[in-house]
């Protein structure tokens, strides 16, 4: 399949389809014309500039008052990419690097950045050939763009750095001749166009949103199974309650649970208890708030990925080159911090349901084994879930609340959006593992309700799960079962 790069708005779903479908990219005619027009305009302006233009004829950051000689403009851009590649720490997931490439291509294609068509095409060639630059997680302040990570993304263009190709980490200087590619010579402003931008932050946000949608759906399905296994009540999910507090996510969660539990003999059975604990009774309110947060964050990120975020911004039609602040990550740093908190809460309430399932209440055996004592059963998976939840709570401190001045005070307020992005990914991973542990417990507990059955929807999930993860009769090595449970959520 092929995706044509154009001015058409990209959605999160579009990106998911491009990545999952292994689509190739083709720079469409519209985008080609925009790229060429902007580059030609910038080249013409270079001939008669009567005043300095930041990043084009000057140094960068606090060096903005130093004018660069015309013969050194290409070297200036080369040095920028090379010197700013100062990332460290763990490497970024390959799937996120692919999204970074896509977003950088999209941003450059609007014709406001001054990149050469050859440069944008090489990025597309890398995407299409699955040549993925090695990018490090640490190094960006999320303000003058994601400078260090995007420098690592761009290094291969000038024949430097490392990439992952066919599962191997390769030096570009060795790989390029094999592919028949030569290093590019960057023109004025190009290095800045490549490094200024929010594509590191935005790519992490896109990946996290895709996972968040999946995990939110699973949280409902697993929560419904846990409710059945705990002999919970249906009343908290009836529509009347939610009509008088009509938050969209709350209403949709309650409706989803009614749908999931339709036809269950367990939920309609006679109950001896009047109320369920909050972790069951307040699912519409908690899961619903997470849904509302996901929807809001999606709207912000979809604006961001369809934007020009480098500096200066070139407007050929209006004969303007404007130095401003579209690289600043604040618009997406705050929402990413919000999404981190929302996903952490999904894990937190999930762990509480696990605790209730193993607590020996409502006719369930302690730790969900028939012979507790000689068997510890599901005692320790709850410990694991609690440990993960605690870590996620620590990661909920908003990265966007911090700022450290840089570049000799020229960049005196930064978003720390890159830190918001990387810890968001960690909380996504954590939430997935906690939900997988809840599913392990819920399926185990449901078996103790036999011969009664849940709804067709829940029983279908249960049957599919049992093909991968068996009932635990007595103590066994549980870590592999948790791993299988995680994999089940990814199907």
Q: What's this entry about, in short?
A:
By secondary structure, this protein is mainly α. It is built from 18 helices and 9 strands.
What does this structure look like?
The model has no long low-confidence stretch (mean pLDDT 94). The protein is mostly helical and 491 residues long. It has helices at residues 12-20, 29-48, 73-83, 94-108, 117-128, 147-154, 172-179, 190-195, 199-229, 239-243, 248-260, 278-281, 283-304, 330-357, 379-395, 417-447, 456-466, 479-489, and strands at 2-5, 24-27, 88-91, 132-133, 136-138, 162-165, 168-171, 313-315, 320-322. The protein has a 3-stranded antiparallel β-sheet with strand order 4-6-7. Helix 1 links the parallel strand 1 and strand 2 (24-27). It has 2 domains: 2-197, Orthogonal Bundle (Fumarase C, Chain B, domain 1), CATH 1.10.275.10; 204-489, Up-down Bundle (Fumarase C, Chain A, domain 2).
Query: What is the count of DSSP helices, taking H or I runs of 4+ residues?
Result: 18
Share of residues in helices = 40-55%
Q: What does the overall shape look like?
A: elongated
* CATH classification, class level of the largest domain: Mainly Alpha
CATH architecture assignment name of the largest domain: Up-down Bundle
Beta-strand level of the residues, as a percent range?
A: 5-15%
What is the count of β-strands?
Answer: 9
Give the N-to-C terminal Cα separation. Answer: 22 Å
How many strands, what sense, and barrel or not for the largest sheet? 3 strands, antiparallel
Uncertain stretches of 5 or more adjacent residues: none
Can you list the strand order of the major beta sheet?
4-6-7
Return the string of H and E elements. Answer: EHEHHEHHEEHEEHHHHHHHEEHHHHH
Number of domains: 2
CATH superfamily of the largest domain: Fumarase/aspartase (Central domain)
Mean of residue pLDDT values: 94
Radius of gyration using CA atoms only: 26 Å
SS-derived structural category: mainly alpha
CATH level-3 fold name of the largest domain: Fumarase C, Chain A, domain 2
